[in-house]
Amino acid sequence: MDCLDRSPGQFRNFKKDDFEADWIKVAECRFGQLYQVKLKLKGEKCALKSFDTPLCATNFYRRIIEEAPNLAKVKSRYIVSVYGLCSEATAVVMEHMSNGSLNNLLASHTLMWPKKFQMIHEVSMGMNFLHSLNPPLLHLNLKTSNILLDDHLHVKISDFGLIHWKEGMSKKLFMEQLTVRGNISYIPPETFTQSPDPPGTSFDVYSFGIVMWEILTQQKPYADTVRETEALSDILKIPGLIQSHQNDDKSQKSDYPWLFSPIHKIDLPMMPDLPTDHKSSILSFLCKKDFGSFNQSVKREHVKTQFSGEKSLLHYTVASGDAESVEHVLSLGAEVNCTTARGYTPLIVAVLHRLHDVISLLLEHGASATQGAEDDWTALHFAAQNGDDKTVRLLLDKGAVADAREKAGWMPLHLASQNGHETVVRLLLSRLPEKAVREREAQGRTPLHLASAYGHLNIAKLLLSKGADPNATDCSLSTALHLSAEEGHNRVVRQLMKSGANIDSADSRGYTPLHLAALKGHTGICRQLLSNGTCPNSRSLQGWTPLHLAAFRGHEATVVQLESQGGCVNAGGENGWTPLHLACYQGGPEVVAKLLEAKADPNVSEDSKGWTPLHVACTSASLQSVLHLISHHADINALNSGKATPLHLAAQHDCKPIVNALLLNSADRTLLDSSGSTALNVAQRCEKLEIVQLLMK
Fold first, then answer.
1. Are 357 and 411 within one domain?
2. I need a surface site. Which of 250, 305, 317, 360 has the fewest CB within 10 A?
């Protein structure tokens, strides 16, 4: 029996040895990491959510252990299945969802209205299932990042049942449980009042309302302003580095634009709201799906009527899905290729609704398979993006142009490759000239770029077998290997290298695939690239090595991997910043410890201001990093270019534990900075009263 195909109620405690060794890191979660793993027995994929060690000593992980067997009993096609625990990895083992979270999809794709409505319906079905249990199972953490997507972009709800309201629970503790997960935008306003009432199903309904709005608008609720990363953001120029701006359309776009489909908002003909005195109108019959009455009532003059948005009666009849009614309207003289204000033909409407009988009927009546809508999207583009291979075949047989390009240069092959529709890709390739597999859209991306960015291994293999160039570059000089390495697709990376991809190719900013894998913490991919001979110390245009980027982002395992395979821990990047400087600034004490163990120099000064790593750690208020540096003989009284010591900076930033640690390790409180101030003077000037008292002892 498939060891994941277990009947409801069965639960398993997995061992690390049950899984193959190559764990693929999919995401950094708020409380740990998410991995894609494979069971050794039959190679089944599953997801493993590992929780950070500090949590394991708290009630949080203990509650997960207690609840997991109960959650495993919750079975629905709209709910992510829980298979068990892996105590050795302090992790929960769950159903693998290949397309990640809805949160990421909404930021990277422009979804069509039918897909949006389908997703909303599926989320509502999942929540209805949870609320229909006896007693109702409240989610209390419903948000787009907890809604996951399978191979065909169907949604399932995850992370349910982890937040609880218990009788007598303090409101403060409950609010802490909610807000620590970063979901404040999804919490009903009344929760913030002093009312002692426990949350009910209405709590989830409010969250669902926000999720629904987010799906429909593809915007983030209550866009927040995040803090600047001070001068370092200008120094680093690292993709994805937090910048201080509103969460608008521009901020959603990464420095690499490959994850974005051509923008094409869909305005489908929906039945209009009809006044009560028009209940007998022909459109009301379509609304009620009373097709017999519709066909008896419709007259030739109705066929010429134009509704809002220049929609015709034929558009609405097609949208109803009744082929007999469509044929009747056509027999009354309807123009088969009429268009809405945005250029949609009845055929395009039928394709969007996957109405195969209607599609065939329209084509038999002369519907043009080549006519494009706004932005030059043809019916074939829509069918390819939807993965509707039956419609693709119908259209191709009726003269659709397989290599038609929309306004941004995308062919149907680009869309099918990006969305993982292998059957459609095969169909299109069978009708395309050999060179089509290498064709680029306006940003220079080939179908292989798109398949690789999304981890569609079989499509990547197919495109390569048909002559796709693994070293083709887009407008940012990124290859397919850059994209798959950054997105963490191990098997695609392996296939591209096997097919001759240049592993040291640099993009327009000097980033190699290793830089991008290090930046995202994809340790397995770093290991693959290094084992295949990539340079561990290649530099970007700003002088950053992969080890700099991994240290800055706090990817401890990646730092260890890079160092063990030749990465230089003392490499100086722009302005002389070393990986240790960056780890002290942002990466975290664990990375600082690993770098120091690997003989990173704790006393190296960066070029622009003469700061040592200890100066940086004091400014970042990282006590553990300070203690690690002190234990490795960092100079307590090092002077920067302004003659400030670490003690000056700790006093300025109100870091009492750090000030105390420095004093206990012989920091000289009498030293003067370039303005003639002692650390005490700095604390007094900055009104840091506790620091003043400490320094005056």
1. yes
2. 250
